[in-house]
């Protein structure tokens, strides 16, 4: 797999090797061995940490659906490895580690069934996506189990984040919960950049 670094350390785009012919295509969507070799998570002590995914999730959504910006608070912070099986999304990771040189900054990447790209979001980030196609099937791996008591979120349209979601705001479809999240400056349960998350 090919690793593309982004402007925020630890947030990477992964391009798998895709083998295609007249029958269709094949690719290895995940290899723990290759992931460990290619994706570097280094603790505050300088020692490399391993990410072990324990839960896979899948969602189906229609055009305009925006899910986010979500995170799980410590001690159940999650890394996520996300990809699109069908359709297209704009996927966004926001640094919510207070004291980080990139606090409040985000990385946005288009994930589609054609480009087969995957997006790795480390612990300490909020995550969300909006559907750009008529329909999407979206999959993600998490390295901690869902823990509803530690749910956290920030507003998708926080002006301080200045995220361009690539579709008009009036076309965005939200859950009732996602309509009421606080702005980053008012959010609770954010991470400390000096906190060991792995």
Task: Write structural notes for this entry.
With 198 residues, this protein is mainly beta. Helices cover 4% and strands 42% of the residues. The chain has one helix and 17 strands. A hairpin with a 2-residue loop joins strand 3 (18-21) and strand 4. The mean pLDDT is 96.
Write the layout of secondary structure elements.
Elements: E1 2-5, E2 12-15, E3 18-21, E4 24-27, H1 32-38, E5 41-42, E6 48-49, E7 55-62, E8 66-72, E9 80-86, E10 88-95, E11 97-98, E12 106-112, E13 118-121, E14 125-131, E15 135-142, E16 151-153, E17 191-192
Parallel strand pairs: 11-17
Antiparallel strand pairs: 1-2, 2-13, 3-4, 5-6, 7-15, 8-14, 8-16, 9-13, 9-15, 10-12, 10-14
Determine Rg (CA atoms, Å): 16 Å
Binned, the helix content reads under 10%
CATH topology: Jelly Rolls
Q: Strand sequence of the main sheet, in spatial order?
A: 1-2-13-9-15-7
Terminus-to-terminus distance: 24 Å
Looking at the overall shape, the CATH architecture is Sandwich
- Counted by DSSP, the helix tally is 1
State the order of secondary-structure elements, H for helix, E for strand. Answer: EEEEHEEEEEEEEEEEEE
Question: CATH superfamily assignment?
Answer: Jelly Rolls
* Biggest beta sheet summary: 6 strands, antiparallel
Number of domains: 1
Class derived from helix and strand content: mainly beta
Binned strand content: 35-45%
